[in-house]
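W.,

You were right to be curious about this one. When I first looked at the sequence I had no strong expectations either way, so I just let the prediction run and decided to look at it fresh. Below is the sequence, 295 residues in total, followed by the output.
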Amino acid sequence: MRNLNLDQVLSLTRVVQLGSFSAAAKALNLTQPAISLQVRDLEERMGVRLVERLGRRAFATPAGQELLQRGQRLLRDAEEAIAAMQRHREGRLGRVRLSANDIFCSYLLPRAIQAFRRKRPDAEVRVSISSTATAVDEVLDNRYDLAVITLPISDKKLTVTPLLCEPLVAILPPSDPAAAAAIAAPELARRALILDLPTSRYSRLVRAWFEASGVEPKPVMETSAYESVKQLVQAGLAASILPRVAVESEPRRDLAIRPLRPALTWDLAVIQRRDRKLEPAAADMRDALMALRKR
C-alpha cells in the first residue's frame, strides 16, 4: 500500500464536514473534479469505500469515519509541524547544544544564557558539563554545536575563537598573615592546599605553575566543588587557587584574595566544527558567549 497522502485526507475531511464535493472544492480552492479524484484515489489506496451519497449529501462510511478519526490527528500533527518550521524560519525557535567545563558553567555560562534568552526565549538549550578533551570529542562527533574549552587546542577540523584570559588568584583564610601584594608558588606551597582534580586541564595548568618555580604542591584535598572550596578556605582548612570570576563577588572579610606571582591566566576559547554552519540559534549563543569579553 502506498503512503497516506495528507492532502487527500484533508479533502475527504472537508467533503464529509461540508456534505458535498462542490463545497469542499470551494473551501480548499480546488475544482470539484480535483476533489473527486483525490477521494477516489484515496479509496483505491485503502481498498475500501470511504464516502457514500445519501440523497444530495455526502457521508462517511464506517471505514471513512475511522480513517477520519485517525486522519484528524495526522492533520493536527502536520499543522503543528508546519507552524514549528515557520517559527524556525522566523528565528523564534531553535536548539543549541553546548559543552563546557564545570568552572565556566558555574560562574560565566549563566550570564551568557541570560543574554541569549532575551533574544530567544523559546529556544531549547542543552548543556553538557565536560572536560576539554570530552568537549572536543562532542563537537567533532557533531553531538554538540559549540564548546568552551581550555587552551591550547590544535585540530584542523575545528574553528577556535579565543574567548577569555581569566586571571587565577590565590584564596586564603581571612586570618592568614600573608600580606604581600602577590603570592609566589613557594610561599603558597608551604600552606595546606585544596586543588582541582588532577585529571582536568585546569588542574594541570595550576600544577605546572608550581612546578615552574621548582615546588611540588601536596594538596590535602582534591575536588571540583568550587563553592565548597571557598567555604573550606574561609573556615581556615587550607588555601586554594581559583579563577578570579569565582571569587570576584565575595566579601573581602570572608576570603583573602591575592594575585599570583608570576601571574597565571586560564585561557578559554569557543570551538565549533570548521565544516559546519551554525543554525541561527547556535550562532546567537556564540555571540552571547563572545559578549562575555566585555564584562
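Here's what jumped out at me. The chain has eleven helices and twelve strands. And, maybe more interesting for your project: The chain has three domains: 6-89, 95-164+267-294, 166-266.

Coffee later to discuss?

I.
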